[in-house]
């Protein structure tokens, strides 16, 4: 049965969790000390009273990022009783959860709805792709908001969720702790969105980017793809020679650019020489039936790739639906400013529905869903009314995010939008709350602190864990 949840209750004495933690820390503040000062490390402000069975349930996280902004009306939050210009041409279908409907073009997702928790009142209040995207990817609002074609750099140099997790959790063996694929998200002018790297944590903490191109055998990955005439033995001899030469370049020893290049080339070499890592990248080792279930599309095979990576110990994998060279300039990715219905029906929803439904079913069948948090999100949603071109504008006031597994209870909806899908009606949450919940499921309290470039405390999130969905 569908569970409709409102905002989480406060503690019995009327105080919020964050207030309790703040009060509990007054003794340290009075002495001019913090937990991080006392230990010299990133330490969470832990309250045993507030611990629950969902804390740290997830070993890994898969983020599916649908760049452009899917319309909430024609995906997760249909409005069948709204006027035609609001509800659009696509109707709702029932799901495995009685009382829960989603878009008719999502039949495979409907079959796994009992695994999904829908947040229907997410809000960034930001209608620009890159600045709202920065907010979603870091849990920090961009300065200023509503800033299109924003670029990385101070003051907008907060680390991404993946970078923070990678800093907190060391590598589990041969693979990087966090990976982004198959490409970064870019602005209209080709520049890279902010919020996708480690920001002030330093480039060494960047999530590992796997530039990948879909081929019949799987993904061709530029960083570890060897030329036909270069085997691993020859590559090893070349690296030994480069290492010896590098020691002679004293001027490069303190060059940060050279250091970053050396770190990344070393990591690529380690991946090439690790049988376990190379095995993770071989999609052609998957049964053909599994590859077909996910769909032989870049997104579908990328989602399958993510499952293989978390299966082998990667902590967080972000799969981007990114702006490719074949995307229409006026309607790239999910940014449907015109012809929304045909774009959703013919291009967008079938591969997304197929891959997402397959992922949840596959994780469940392998016994991995309980320990793998899956988050399907975008930078924002779409405006309530269709315009004369049959499209919708950018809309950060209210949209939906789907979560599953890893400590999140499925078959429920938290929050709701108004009758037009325009503004939150109840249960409004922000990206900081989403970040706090993700880190909670991964075993880190939002109060865990880093230090920024000025030595100021920087918590993982300033939001509240959405406890009603756990």
Automatic annotation (TrEMBL):
Stored InterPro entries: Alkaline_phosphatase_core_sf, DUF1501
Top-level taxon in the UniProt lineage: Bacteria
Pfam families with a match to the protein in the record: DUF1501
This protein's name: DUF1501 domain-containing protein
Species in which this protein is naturally found: Singulisphaera acidiphila (strain ATCC BAA-1392 / DSM 18658 / VKM B-2454 / MOB10)
């Amino acid at each position: 049965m569908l569970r409709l949840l409102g905002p989480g209750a406060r503690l019995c004495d009327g105080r919020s969790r964050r207030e309790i933690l703040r009060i509990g820390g007054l003794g340290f503040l009075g002495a001019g000390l913090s937990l991080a000062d006392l230990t010299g490390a990133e330490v969470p402000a832990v309250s045993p009273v507030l611990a629950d069975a969902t804390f740290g349930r997830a070993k890994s996280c898969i983020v599916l990022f649908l760049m452009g902004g899917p319309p909430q009306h024609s995906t997760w939050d249909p409005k069948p009783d709204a006027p035609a210009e609001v509800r659009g041409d696509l109707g709702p279908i029932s799901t495995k959860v009685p009382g829960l409907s989603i878009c008719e073009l999502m039949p495979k997702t409907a079959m796994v709805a009992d695994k999904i928790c829908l947040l229907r009142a997410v809000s960034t209040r930001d209608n620009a792709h890159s600045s709202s995207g920065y907010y979603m990817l870091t849990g920090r609002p961009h300065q200023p908001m509503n800033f299109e074609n924003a670029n990385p750099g101070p003051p907008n140099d907060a680390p991404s969720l993946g970078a923070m997790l990678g800093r907190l959790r060391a590598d589990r063996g041969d693979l990087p702790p966090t990976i982004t694929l198959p490409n970064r998200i870019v602005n209209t002018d080709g520049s890279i969105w902010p919020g996708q790297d480690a920001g002030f944590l330093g480039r060494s903490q960047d999530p590992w980017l796997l530039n990948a191109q879909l081929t019949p055998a799987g993904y061709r990955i530029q960083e570890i793809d060897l030329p036909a005439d270069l085997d691993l033995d020859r590559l090893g001899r070349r690296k030994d020679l480069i290492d010896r030469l590098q020691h002679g370049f004293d001027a490069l020893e303190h060059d940060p650019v050279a250091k970053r290049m050396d770190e990344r080339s070393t990591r690529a070499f380690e991946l090439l020489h690790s049988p376990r890592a190379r095995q993770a990248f071989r999609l052609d080792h998957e049964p053909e039936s599994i590859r077909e279930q996910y769909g032989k599309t870049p997104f579908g095979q990328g989602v399958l790739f993510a499952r293989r990576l978390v299966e082998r110990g990667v902590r967080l994998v972000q799969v981007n639906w990114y702006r490719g060279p074949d995307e229409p300039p006026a309607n790239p990715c999910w940014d449907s400013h015109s012809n929304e219905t045909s774009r959703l029906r013919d291009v967008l929803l079938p591969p997304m529905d197929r891959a997402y439904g397959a992922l949840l079913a596959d994780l469940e069948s392998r016994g991995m869903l309980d320990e793998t948090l899956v988050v399907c999100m975008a930078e924002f949603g779409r405006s309530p009314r269709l315009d004369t071109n049959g499209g919708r504008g950018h809309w950060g006031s209210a949209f939906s995010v789907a979560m599953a597994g890893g400590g999140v209870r499925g078959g429920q909806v938290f929050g709701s939008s108004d009758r037009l899908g325009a503004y939150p009606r109840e249960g409004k949450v922000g990206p900081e709350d989403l970040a706090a919940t993700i880190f909670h499921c991964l075993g880190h309290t939002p109060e865990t602190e880093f230090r920024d470039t000025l030595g100021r405390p920087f918590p993982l999130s300033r939001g509240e864990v959405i406890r009603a969905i756990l």
